[in-house]
Amino acid sequence: MIDLSPEIRPETAADHDAIAALHDHAFGPGRFARTASRLREGVAADPDLSLVARVGPRLAGSVTMTPILIGAEPALLLGPLAVDPDFENRGIGRALVRETLARAAAAGHRLVLLVGDGPYYGRLGFHPVSPERVRMPGPVDPRRVLVAELVEGAREAAQGLVARAPH
């Protein structure tokens, strides 16, 4: 019997071409114009928190975590999260998010922000945040701006404009 359980580990340079192809397929070229994508420009993703899921030799999914600021508070931006269509609905996306959040908490991070689907990410500990409290630097549906506290009270400390973290 073939083992279809994913191996989740930090991404490496050897994964980059497969991740780029997955993102092209999942999101298309329009993804570069999105506000969340622009926040990632020029900022290195956290290599310990950007993970891949592999099933055998195939890339089944990936998640990226990038440092940001919310006002003066350091935080992480989760995304993109992508799963190969051949592996959808097998829990790989949820497993990637849970693992990266656990690693982020263990590394001392306090808060994670993303722009995404509330019902999907709500099951993973994300909650909407008021646009008066956290402002994105470009167009985004405010109902899709979500945060997950890794440390209780971190959400209260973070307020203001979301910006790229300094290099």
Structure characteristics:
167 residues; alpha+beta; Aminopeptidase; nine-stranded mixed β-sheet
Describe the fold and architecture:
The structure is a single chain. The chain is an alpha+beta fold and 167 residues long. It has one domain (7-164): Gcn5-related N-acetyltransferase (GNAT) (Aminopeptidase). It contains 5 helices and 9 strands, in the order E-H-H-E-E-E-H-E-H-E-E-E-H-E. It has helices at residues 16-27, 35-40, 92-106, 118-122, 154-157, and strands at residues 7-10, 51-55, 58-70, 73-83, 111-115, 127-128, 134-135, 145-149, 160-164. Strands 1, 2, 3, 4, 5, 6, 7, 8 and 9 form a 9-stranded mixed β-sheet that branches. The chain is globular, with a radius of gyration of 15 Å. It starts with 6 loop residues before the first strand and ends with a strand. The model has no long low-confidence stretch (mean pLDDT 90).
CATH C-level label: Alpha Beta
Kindly estimate the percentage of residues that lie in beta strands according to DSSP: 25-35%
Q: Number of domains in the coordinates?
A: 1
Major sheet, described briefly? Answer: 9 strands, mixed
Give the helix/strand class.
alpha+beta
Distance between the termini: 47 Å
The name of the CATH topology is Aminopeptidase
Radius of gyration: 15 Å
> In the CATH hierarchy, what is the superfamily?
Gcn5-related N-acetyltransferase (GNAT)
Into which percent range does the helicity of residues fall?
Answer: 25-40%
Strands, total number: 9
Give, in order, the helices and strands. EHHEEEHEHEEEHE
Shape: globular
Low-pLDDT segments, ≥5 res: none
| Level-2 CATH architecture | 3-Layer(aba) Sandwich
- Number of helices, where a helix is a run of at least 4 consecutive DSSP H or I residues: 5
Q: Give average pLDDT, whole number.
A: 90
